[in-house]
């Protein structure tokens, strides 16, 4: 994996936003996979600023969801569809028709999972998938011991993940127990994977994912198998990396035009 260490979250957001903008200039109808939570917000803020400044045209871009809660009513403010519309689609000036995601309200959840996996393939595949990482090393909602070949499916959230997400709800009891998530195998089909991690609380997970063995216990370690995976971390999240100085030197030596 390519590992890029940046000073802070804002610098990481700008770096990734520029990579997305470069993709959109090369492929205006690119399919961008987005993640939710607080970590990717600097990316969306930097990208929307570029759109407002007319340095990139996102009007033909397409957006797809990484995961979705099961059972939240349509329009619930914390459904990931609502979050993505609010934080990505609307700021980029896109219409809702450019957005695709799994149906967390479906009566047949398994059929909804299979339909979404198929829809991603029929859309031509994801050009760039933005990822976060959980404190236990999960990506999407692929919790520890998820199959590295898994497809889009329903998953039961661990207590740790529900506690981590409780800050978005009025009470911990409101956090759903189940989600639809792209599987690790599905995620690995994206042409470019970009994982952003910030804060000391992610340092152990980053170190295990980047420098540890590929193991189902650390789902994010599967990125080591991808031909174009980039991990962007701030100094705090990089604090447990044994090869931090090597990663700094390697990225500093890259030609400026190469980007990430």
UniProtKB/TrEMBL annotation:
Record family assignment: Belongs to the glucosamine/galactosamine-6-phosphate isomerase family. NagB subfamily.
EC number, UniProt record: 3.5.99.6
GO cellular component, one term: cytoplasm
Enzyme class: hydrolase
Functional description taken from the UniProt entry: Catalyzes the reversible isomerization-deamination of glucosamine 6-phosphate (GlcN6P) to form fructose 6-phosphate (Fru6P) and ammonium ion.
Domain Glucosamine/galactosamine-6-phosphate isomerase: 10-225
Pathway annotation: Amino-sugar metabolism; N-acetylneuraminate degradation; D-fructose 6-phosphate from N-acetylneuraminate: step 5/5
SUPFAM superfamilies listed in its UniProt record: NagB/RpiA/CoA transferase-like
GO BP annotations, alphabetical order: carbohydrate metabolic process; glucosamine catabolic process; N-acetylglucosamine catabolic process; N-acetylneuraminate catabolic process
Transit peptide is among the record's keywords: no
Protein name (record): Glucosamine-6-phosphate deaminase
Pfam families, per database record: Glucosamine_iso
Species this protein is from: Streptomyces chattanoogensis
